[in-house]
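Can't paste images in this forum, so I'm doing it all in text. The chain is below; anyone willing to post the predicted structure tokens underneath?
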Amino acid sequence: MTPQIPQVHPNRRTLNDEAHARPSEALSPPCAISFLALFNASRSREQHMAPLAQLCRRYGVPEPPSDTIHFSSDLGPFRVKWERHTEFTRYKFIVANPGGAPFERPAIGAVPQDWLSSLPGQIVAAAEIAHIRMDQGDIEYDALSARYFSGHSLVGALVAEGAGAAVTDLRIREDGFSRFLLIDHALSPRQAGRMVQRLVEIDAYRILALFALPVAREVLPRLLEAEAELAAISAAMSIEQGPEEPQLLDRLTRLEAQIQHRHFETASRFSAADAYYRLVQARIDELRESRILGLQTFREFIDRRLAPAMSTCASVSSRQEKLSLRVGQTTQLLSTRVEVATQRQTQTLLESMNRRARLQLRLQQTVEGLSVAAITYYVVGLIAVIARGLASGGVAVKPEVVTAVSVPLVATVVALGVRRVRRAFAPEDHAD
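Text version of the structure:
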């Protein structure tokens, strides 16, 4: 009887199956494995899937669903394992019992060459892996180097706590492939598959992590120039105050825009490099390696050859972030100084306007007084003419008395009239 449980979260099965994604192949010696990692970050899902679908149709194998991220199938002459990642796609071609000596008949030789040449993307890692069985006491590593690795110094270790050994020279040969030799002492098929997967992932992730190194080398001179420019602006800020500050702010904002643009362009690459480097270290841990006398271990090789490059990238990324922060702080400081200077100028301007307003008020009051006197003079003159006219006509008035009495009355009326007119046209002055 199926128990009645609450509603299941829609992502539960997908997230649970993620733990089982990209399982390793079961491998038994002898076998040959060819590995390709193709960088194609800008391509669509359909472009990723198209070559695999063509290969399946060619060998009469059902095509995988369009949303798959890994696929494995036995096509007859060889087995193929396909995986899609964020920036790259990788293929493993496996041939059991290839015959001949190790690396004599690589698995890639069984793959249709016209199909291989049509694969989209650019190779970032290509490796031939020979999986053979040998007893530990029968191994002569100098002889292996001379026979399979052109006498180069080997990098290798016992893996899976001594159940096998893995050696390589990590060099790219004329055919474009590097070589790994997995020697099986007592590995189970699944263990052997996991060891092969870890070895090729170390090789691929090592190169992908190093993608950030040319970026760091390109950014570093520009970073030095930006730091020198910031130092020059900061020095000028400690001296210049006043009209030169807006020009300094303009220089600073242009510098900040350049740094931010460069930071946005490179941040994802540096972040990816750090993630790939961590994956390399994790895969080395999973090898569970122990030293083979006279050989450099994978850990030692990575620490000596990859770690310095990653330190350079991390240093450039950190300097870029710190420079962006310092430029932002300097911009804020200079903006505050410019704002304070602007406020001071505004305050000075307002004080000047107030002085002009007070002078204008005094002038207006003077003009109003003169206007009252002038109007009174003319009106009183008219009254005097009228009074003399009335006196000449026999009316009993004294023109001089009328004129004298009219002066204060006319002056008062005119003053009140001028004030009313001023209030009508300037009510704010009245409020003051």
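The CA atoms of residues 13 and 19 lie 10 Å apart. Strands lie at 31-39, 70-74, 79-84, 88-96, 122-133, 155-159, 164-168, 178-184.
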